[in-house]
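Re: the multi-chain job from yesterday

Posting the exact lines I submitted so nobody has to dig through the queue logs.
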Amino acid sequence: MKQVVVNGKPLPIAQRVCTRCVQDSSIPGITFDEHGVCNFCHFHDKLEKLFPNGDEGKKHIACIVENAKRRGKNKKFDCVVGISGGRDSTYLLYLVVKQWGLRPLAVHFNDGFDNPVAGENMVKACRLLGVELRTITSDWREAKELKIDFLKASVPDLNMGTDIGIASSLYGVACKEGIKTILIGQSFRTEGVKPLSWSFFDGKYLKSVHRKFGKTPLRPWKPEDPGFNFSIKELMYYSLIKGIRTYTPMYSHDYIRKQGEEIIIRELGWVYPGAHYYDDLYHSLIKYVHRVKFNIDMNMNSDSALVRSHQLDRNIALQRAHAVYAIEDPKVIDLCIKRLGLSHEEFDSYMLLEPKTFRDYNTMYNYIRLAKPLIYLFARLHLIPRITYDKYFNCGK
Amino acid sequence: MKHITIAMAQMLVEGGEPERNFARAAKLIEEAAKKQCDIVLLPETIDFAWTHPSSLSDAKPIPGEYSQIFADMAKKHAMYICVGLTEKRANGNCNSAILFDRNGKMRIKYSKINLLTVEHPYYMVGSSLHVAETEFGRIGVNICADNYPESVCIAHTLCRMGAQIILSPSSWTVDYAITEADDPYRDKWIAPLTHIAKLYNVLMVSTTGVGYIVGGPYEGKKMVGCSLAVGKDGIVAQGQFNEFAGELIVFESPVPQNQEKGTEIGDRLKSLGCIGALNI
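And the result, structure tokens for all chains:
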């Protein structure tokens, strides 16, 4: 049996593996039916019905596009498109311009760990597509401290600051420029669905961790310059008061990752950053910490999604599960530690802390559970991203 | 009239990452060589990035391991290279810039004089100015804030030493909140570079880095490019606003010719209403 060393102890990797995808019992909240198929696969099928691609998907995308054009009439931009220089967001930007005929403002959030290759991809793509790029840079003093806070908090959500920063910058720019539509490149068919305790997203959580471990206060929220402030309250402001809607059109698009990649290589000179998620160098460290400290393999989620979508051979995905991923480059991990101003001794001491989850901190989770029907309604009305509801209530534990 | 092709290698400079930075510099230098440039100008302190704490312990002497990399590249591509590096000396470090000729020979080593207060713990003040006679004419070198309006005496002196081209490796920084929608420097750099270029008919070329400042006293700021070349008639070339990707800006320019020397310069400045050095 394959083994993994977690916190210095050898453990069996998994007792049970889904018979359809490659997710295994290392995933919190995973269950298996009588055929050995996991609940994430069933959830994938549910999403397939909710968001069909093919002709139905085209109709849905046409609605999104028409709506964005209508709401962007007499304005400089129809929509905000979040980009990272990675494959999915670059391809989305390509589709938005070349196939859907929208006038996007590309928005990128820079937290100081951008992979230079991804940076060049963004610049090239925007230049070749004639798209204006707006880069929202975090204050490094805040961004750095938040990264250290989450290492000290001993939770897997090591990029919470960046995740919050990305969301807040998209809404902040949309608010500033009077843009009513945000498009993001996520797709359950290629990204999969992560269990809640691997992907919990909440600004209150960030603040409670920062209050406990941080030293300097974060700058306050302003609608057009939200910084690292993004929770239910801010989301409600942007969606209900400012009327900003977020869509995930790739849910409905016939997206074959390999084909999308070929198109952006050919048309936009896109260069593969070296690995999935590697548009952000910090993922090198995250991947290492996840594997060694938490026995988490996020790639298993995306590989499982690709297996379900018939874009990856299951045997290949099985071989890759829990393996040391290419992204774990010791030089880049060193770069991350050094860039945070940490010594190796300090970093090692964080690695030895007892693993925790968001449930060990003050979050909105209990309120979110109480507001489940409301969140469902908001997601269906696109007042908040559809994935928001799924993330909190359909993603394991 | 002689013409010169110059490449401004506006590159991403990552704090504390000399190997990664040199790899990027090498790519841009190679690209400049393919475009048959005569000179490639790189930014300031591209080894560790400007005021990065690791420079205090890890800087190398010049000549030394790091400067040799650029000497070798200059020789390999038969191209002039001007680059900013941190220089380790016996009693401290300097923020230095070096000019190599086509044979890889070091023609100028200059250390920044107009150091910002925040630089003082990192670098010692330079003590000399230099120009080099080249096949294009005289080239002078200064660094970034040496061209501040209150410090243009440095460029004045280089011009009086006969400089026809002044190369200035730089690390122009702005607050993190500045975006592509803003004019990052306003007149901060255009004004002093234009002032000198017009006054002396000299080509002022300044290449800045791009990237996030990730250590040292300027955390919270970033470099966003917009490198600049200015001649007597105004802007000759300019880089794009960018904070995470490099670009090579190549331009051709006639080499400015100016026959004035010594007190002739002073006489002309007087005729322009600049009476003595106190008013210029």
